[in-house]
Design goal:
- The complex is a heterodimer of chains A (about 200) and B (about 220).
- Chain A is mainly alpha-helical.
- Chain A is about 45% helix and about 5% strand.
- The longest helix of chain A is centred in the N-terminal third of the chain and has 25 residues, at about 45-70.
- Chain B is mainly α.
- In chain B, helix 1 (about 15-35) crosses helix 2, helix 2 runs parallel beside helix 4 and helix 4 (about 90-115) packs antiparallel against helix 6.
- Chain B is globular and about 45 Å long.
- The chains are: A mainly alpha (about 200), B mainly alpha (about 220).
Amino acid sequence: MLVHYDRSRRRLLKWSAASAAGVALSGVIMPNFGISAALAADLGEGDVGVLNYAYALEQLEAAFYTMVVDSPYADINDDEKAILTDIRDHEVEHRDFLKEALAAGAIPDLEVDFSAVDFTSRDSVLGTAMVFEDLGVGAYNGAGKLLENADYLLNMNSVSFAGDDVVDKNGLDVAYAPTEVLPKADPFIKTDVTANAFM
Amino acid sequence: MTLNQNTLLSGVDPEITERLVANRREFFRSSALKLGALASAPLLLAAASQQAFGQDLPAEITDVLLFALTLEHVEDAFYRSGLEAKGLIPEQYVGVFNQIGKHEAEHVAFLSAALGPKAIDRPKLDLTAGGKYADALTNFETYLTLSQTFEDLGVAAYKGQAGNLISNDDILTAALQIHSVEARHAAMVRRIGGKKSWDGAFDEPMSKEDVLAAAAPFLA
């Protein structure tokens, strides 16, 4: 994965200014990234920036689980349906909580792109859920130290049910920097979002 | 900012590193003995760095680490005892509890290494809590209840202390990384017990006093 940025000029075209496939984007207009159509937003600096970062990820997760619950895969059982509905409710609560906390500082609603997910397939849905959950855990673990206000820190944690094969040999979970998380979230978000302060 | 900077090594200043290099040979020998089978190069490095710079940690942070280590000792002993008790854990769950127990042992080693000479040994424990859970190690249902209690307590405890670690990025990050592992354990153990993996969208933090009051019956 390539993330092109110029620290001195704080230039970042988008969360991943280069595609995950490693093809540099500069000068190329991608269909999903239409400059005029989508909203554009910068996460901002300081604690507001960190909270917006969380808010963007929660928006993504809430939108994903809403889709999953609204159009469940064919062979879903009651147990899975109940769990996924609970998770959707959690993500919606997290999203709304952050939106309220950010008030006027909140980034706009993001337009998502789940075209890579096959919502009729259990494997595709649960596989994506696992990716999002581990990404979310790692993002929160990595973002804690970026916060200045301890009160925010206490609210920045979420529940995960995903597997634990990402835990290292010191028994520590993943912790990802925004520079690692944003390019992974980027393919699922249409809206142009910049994160200049984190890059 | 990179992923690897979250190791506890990154807070070490060059002067301390120099001292470390001088003492490394001796340190590695003694620590390798102490940590036994758990010893690994990264862990020893973390230990080496902390032994030197642990002295500079403010009491507020040392207190949190000692508190966390106490809880991890309880969990570690709980899973060791459970896995040793023949016939307690049903065959299909042995793998899960093995994994959880391994994590707790790693947390003990990690926190001990971070505290260096200030680390405490495992306290004397009474897993029956003075007889209240007399069948803790013979009845899987009781064992599962206690497991959930300890994991939920751990999640709430780390969450409650995160704010006290905000002055030290590396230790805060490590604590959050342990916290989410405890949350994974709690979710898993709750599922095994046929319960929901969560109580709501927001986990509640607990104060140190409340956590210790809850854990006290298990400390002999």
